[in-house]
Amino acid sequence: MSIFEELGITPFINGHDTYTVYGGSRISAEVIEAMGEGSKYFVDLEALQRKLGQAIAEKTNNEGAYITNGAAGALLLSACVCMAEGKQYAYSRLPVTDGIRNEIIIMRAQRNAYDTAMKASGAAIIEIGDADETLSYELEGSINDNTAAVFYFASKLYERGSLPLEETIRIAHEHGVPVVVDAAAQLPPAANLWNYTQKGADLVIFSGGKTLCGPQDSGLILGKRTYIEDCYRFGPPHHGLCRFLKTSKESMLGLYAALIRYLEIDHEQNYRDMLKRNQLIETCLKDSEKVKKMEMVYQGPVGQEYPRLFIYLNEEAEAGSVKKSMSQKHIYIGTEPGPNALYISPLNLTDEEAQVVARELLEIIG
C-alpha cells in the first residue's frame, strides 16, 4: 500500500501546468538521490549555501547565487537586502523601516498576488503607470532618496503596460537604484538563467519547483556579488525577519542537482517530446463533432518556450463542465476564459499519461 492509499488520497495526472496547488513538478531520481544523501549528515548550512552558490554561479554565468525556500521567499529576502543596504542594524529592525530607504517601485500593470512578499519586509510599495502603459518619466520622477529598489515581474501577461526591462534598468541605474527581476516561471529557455543579469539586473529570482524540477519548496536568486553576499548575511539560518525562510540542506542539494540536470538535458529533444504528446491528444480528438477547432500555441502562460494544445468547443460542450468531469477522473487540465476552450500543457505528462488524457477527453467530449 502506498502512502497516498494509506491516507485515502488519489494522485492526479497533471495536464495543466507546474502550479503550486498541484505540487509543482516531478523531481528526478538525481534530485531524490541528492536529497537522500544530504539527509544522512550534518553540515554548516551557511558554508553549504556558499559552496552551492559558487558552483551555481559558475554554471549559470553569474557573479553569485543563493538558494531560497521558494520564489516568494526570494522576493522577501531581496526586498530586505535592498532596503538594508549592507547594514546589519538596519536589517535587524525590519519590518520597521524608520531612517532607511524603504520604497520599492513596481509598475501598476505588474501588480500580482506574489508582491505581498515584498510588503512583508515593511517596504512601501510605490505604483507607477497604469494597466495600459508605463512611461519613462513616471519611473524617473518616482525615484527619490527613499527609493530602495525597482522590482520587475517578467511575464508576457504584463508586457503591454510595462516599460521594457532594458529601459527600466537604465533609468534605475542612472539613479543608483538596483533592479530585482522576478522570473519565477521564465524557464525555458535555459538561457534566461543568465539573460536577465547580462542585461544588467542586480538580482533575478527563479522558482526551483517549476520547470527546474527541483524541490517545490526551493527557489534561486542569481545576481551581483554584493547583493548575494547580503543574502548570505541576512538570510536563514541567521536571526531576523528572514529566519522563517529556512531552507533545508536536503532542499539545497536537491535544487543543485535539479539545476545541473536542467542545464545538461537536450532541450530541443525535450521540446519535441512535449509536442508529440500534444499531437497525440490532438489526433485523438480531431473527429469529435463537439470540437470546433484545435490550435497549438508555442508558449506557456507567461511566455515560456513550450507548446500547449488549445481545444475550442462548440455550443454542445462547455469547457468548465469538461474540466470538472476530467478532475473527477483525477486529471487536471486548463480552461481559457471567454472562448469556451480547454488547454493541455505537456510539461508534467509522460507519454503514457498523454494517452490517458486523450482517451478520457474523447469519452467526456464525445
Fraction of residues in helices? 40-55%
Q: Report the major sheet.
A: 7 strands, mixed
Order of helices and strands: HEHHEHHEHEHEHEHEEHHHEEHEEEH
| Sheet with most strands: strand arrangement | 2-8-7-6-5-3-4
Strand runs, count: 13
CATH superfamily of the largest domain: Type I PLP-dependent aspartate aminotransferase-like (Major domain)
Shape: globular
Relative strand content: 15-25%
Number of helices: 14
Rg, alpha carbons = 22 Å
Multimerization state? single chain
- State the end-to-end CA separation: 35 Å
Description:
The chain has 366 residues and is of the alpha/beta class. It has 14 helices and 13 strands. The strands form three sheets. A seven-stranded mixed beta sheet has the order 2-8-7-6-5-3-4, sandwiched between helices. A four-stranded antiparallel beta sheet has the order 9-10-13-12, with helices on one face. Helix 12 (267-285) packs parallel to helix 14. It starts with a helix and ends with a helix. The mean pLDDT is 96.
